[in-house]
Amino acid sequence: MLSGAIDLHHLIATWGYAAVFVVIALESAGLPLPGETTLVAAALLAAGGQDLHIGGIVAAAAAGAVAGDNLGYLVGRRFGLPLLERHGARIGLTPTRLRIGRYLFRTHGGTIVVVGRFVALLRAVTAVLAGANAMPWGRFVVFNALGAVAWASVVGLAAYGFGDAALHAPLPFRLASVALAVWLVVGGGLWIRRQEARLAAAADAALADER
To answer: Residue 169, by phi and psi: left (phi above 0), alpha (psi -120 to 50) or beta?
Structure first.
C-alpha cells in the first residue's frame, strides 16, 4: 500500500484542498491510497484550527471523487475484464472480488455506484468495475455524482463535528471516543470481511452458468 509512505498531516497542512482532491482522485481511479483517511484527517485539522474550511474540504473531496471515478470508469471501459483478470490483484481486485463486482452490477446497477463509495473494499474499484461491466456512462455519471457528494458530506461533516466536540470535551470523554472509534474500525473491518465471503458465495451461484 502506498498509504504507509504518506505523512497526511504534513501533506494536508502544506497543500490544503489540493492534497485532498489529488489523493481522493487517485484512490478513486484505482490506486491504493488512503482517500477516506485523507478526508477525515483534513476535517479534523479544520476542526482543530488549521487554515482550512470544512466546506472547501467537502467540495475538494467530492470533486476529486468524481474526477477519479470517471478516469477509473474510462480505464475499465477501454480495457475491460480481461485486463482486470490479469492485473487486478495489484489494486486489490482479486478474482473473488471481480466476481462479486460482476454480480453486484448485474443485480443492483447504479445503486452499487452510490453505496460503493462508502465501502472500503469497493471505493477504489467501483468505477473501474462499472466501466468493465459496460454500465452506460450517462447513468454512471449521475449515480457517481450522487455518491461522491453524499460520501464527502457525511464523512467530512461527521469527522469535523467529532473533532470540534472532542476539543471542548473532558479528557474521559475524549478517551472513550478514541476507544469507540477503534472498536468501530476493527468491528467494521470484520463485518466487511464476513459480507465479502457471503457475497462471493452468492456471486459464484449467480455466475455459474458463465463458466
So the answer is: beta
> What is d(CA 188, CA 112) in angstroms, rounded to the nearest whole number?
19
Closest CA to 20 of 33, 30, 31, 32: 33
Residue 198: CA count within 13 A, CB half-sphere: 6
Report yes or no on whether pTM surpasses 0.90: no
Could you report the per-residue pLDDT of 17-33, keeping only the tens digit for each? 999 999 999 999 888 88
**Of the candidates 85, 55, 78, which has an alpha carbon nearest to the alpha carbon of residue 152?**
55
d(C-alpha 181, C-alpha 187), whole Å:
10
Q: Per residue in 80-112, pLDDT tens?
A: 777 777 877 776 677 777 777 778 777 777 888
Contact 101, 134 (CB under 8 A): no
Helix (H) or strand (E) holding 38: helix 35-47
Among 156, 109, 147, smallest CA distance to 129 is for: 109
